[in-house]
Amino acid sequence: MYESEMISTDLLLKWSKLLKYDFFRLYSHHLILFAPPAGNNIQKKISSELPQFRKHIYTREIIDFILELINTGQKTKIQVIEEYGIPRTTLYKWIYKYNN
Length: 100
What we know:
By secondary structure, the chain is mostly helical. The protein is 53% helix and 0% strand. The protein folds into two domains: 1-35, no CATH class; 56-100. It has helices spanning 9-19, 23-33, 60-71, 77-84, 88-98. The longest helix is centred in the middle third of the chain and has 12 residues, at 60-71. This is Transposase. InterPro entries: Homeodomain-like_sf.
């Protein structure tokens, strides 16, 4: 299983429960970090019965990663806002709250 390229989700869930480690979090973090930036074009809203989520979910690992990029000078605040789509006020709240 370790050397295989794919593993079924039910088997991964069993391993997660057995080892008490959330392997799905690795994948969800990857999706959040490497999602393509939102386009500037206006798209029509599709009506759906599914709930529409408006807020992003930022874990502490993502916040630390973004702040590390800024603190080490790899990216500027403007680059982070544009590339990752993080609102300016949110970024400045992180800097005030977590950069001590």
